[in-house]
Amino acid sequence: ETVVVRPGDTIPVDGTLTDGAGSVDESMLTGESEPVTKQPGDKVSAGTINSHGVLHVRAEGLLRETALGRIIHLVEDAQASRAPIQRLADRIVPWFVAVTLLLATVTFSGWFTVDFELALMSATAVLIITCPCAFGLATPMAIAVATGLGARNGILVKNGEVLETLAGIDHFVFDKTGTLTQGRNSVTTVCTGRDSWSPPEDLGENVGWVLEPLIAAERFSEHPVAEAVRRLGAGLGMEGRERTVAGFEYRPGLGIRATVDGVALVAGTREWLEGNRITGTADFDRVEEELLGEGRSPLHWSLDGRQVGVIGIEDQLREEARGLLSALRLDGMRLTLLSGDRQPVAQAIARRLGGMEVIAEVLPEDKDRKIREIQSRPRKVVMVGDGINDAPALVRADVGIAMGSGTDVSIASADIVLMGSDLDKVRLAAALSRRTLRTIRQ
Question: In this structure, which of 22, 106, 165, 301 has its CB flanked by the most CB atoms within 10 Å?
Answer without folding.
Answer: 301
